[in-house]
Specification:
Layout lengths: L1 H10 L1 E3 L3 E3 L10 H14 L7 E5 L4 H11 L3 E4 L11 E8 L4 E8 L8 E9 L3 H13 L2 E11 L4 H6 L5 E9 L6 E2 L4
Parallel strand pairs: 3-4, 3-7, 7-8, 8-9
Antiparallel strand pairs: 1-2, 5-6, 9-10
Helix pairs in contact: 2-3
């Protein structure tokens, strides 16, 4: 998606350790107009899949997921990373390792919001090692929910995430695919 690639080039910063900082429009400050276009793109791509819910993880996946949910007219459910007094029982849970934060979180979704009647679209902000999406796939399996696909805003194609997710047989649709962040230069995968 050219518009997203332009935003990454303009506002993204490459940090040591192959970390791409996009907090100017995605995971700290949010550009609602851009998020709306990303959500619409996900919705159009998966329009024929019978999606009943969008599922993401708090917090950076919420904005694109909400706009995809709006475009598809379906609810958005986000997995919480921390339990609260209102979310502690009757949960689907999985452990997820964050490449960026270098920590493992237990994510949870209430059984009230995900059932075997659902066909879900997983949306996430980044795909690096695939652990967040794999955790959401594990929760979907626990709920016996069908998974229509996985929508990724930014994929680091030089890491193993896509390969791991493709092995599950679920379609992975990424809006921007980064081939390299070497020498602090963002290079995108060019598909013919």
């Amino acid at each position: 998606m050219k518009l997203l690639e332009e935003a990454i080039q303009e506002k993204g910063t490459v940090l040591p350790g192959n970390v791409l900082k996009v907090d100017a429009f995605l995971n700290h400050q949010i550009d609602p107009a851009l998020m709306q276009k990303l959500g619409k793109e996900f919705a159009e791509h998966f329009a024929q899949e019978g999606i009943t819910k969008i599922v993401t993880i708090e917090s950076s996946g919420i904005a694109p997921a909400v706009f995809a949910g709006l475009a598809l007219s379906v609810p958005v459910v986000f997995a919480r990373k921390k339990k609260s007094v209102t979310l502690k029982d009757n949960l689907y849970s999985a452990s997820v390792y964050s490449y960026t934060k270098q920590e493992t979180s237990d994510i949870s979704i209430s059984k009230s919001f995900l059932t075997s009647e659902d066909t879900i679209l997983i949306i996430d902000d980044f795909l690096a090692n695939g652990q967040a999406a794999l955790g959401l796939l594990e929760i979907a399996r626990e709920a016996n929910a069908a998974v229509a696909g996985i929508g990724i805003v930014i994929e680091k194609s030089f890491q193993q995430g896509r390969k791991l997710l493709q092995e599950t047989g679920v379609e992975v649709y990424s809006l921007a695919r980064i081939a390299s962040l070497e020498n602090e230069t963002i290079q995108f995968v060019r598909e013919d």
